[in-house]
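[step 3/7] fold_predict: job queued, chain A
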Amino acid sequence: MGWQGDIKGSVTYQSGNLLNIKIDHHTYTGGAHGHHGLRSLLFNPETGTSISTNQLFKDQALFKAFAEKKFREKYKIPANKEINSGGLMFENEKFQLPQNIFFTDKGLLLYYNIYEIASYADGATEMLFPYTEVNEFLNLK
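[step 4/7] structure written:
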C-alpha cells in the first residue's frame, strides 16, 4: 500500500488586522490509520507577517487561567483534581493553550489535534468561546 498525503488551505477569518488561514491535512504512511489535523496560521493582512500566540492576548497568563477554568467546566474536571484525571494527557499535568487557535465567525476556537492532549480514539478536543466572553483578553480581532 502506498503512502498518501492531502493538504487543503482556506481563509477562515479576515479582519482589518488579522488573517486566519486553516490548513487541513491528512497523511497515511502505513499502520492502523492515517493522521488528520488542523493548523492555524495567523497573519497581519497589511504586512504579511506572522502573528504569534503571545501577540493575540493582552495578558496570555490571564487568558490561560480563564480558558483552563472553562475547559475544566466543559470536561467536568474539578478544580482540586489533576487536569489529566479526566483521561487527558497534558504534559506534566499542566493545562496549556493549544498550538492552534482559530478565529471564526462564531468566536475564538482553541483546537487540540489528535494526540496533543488525548488519544486517537478520543479525537480532537475543541473549546469555542464566543467573542463576548473573550474580547477583553484579545489584542486583535
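[step 5/7] annotate
The mean pLDDT is 92.
The chain has one domain: 4-137.
exit 0
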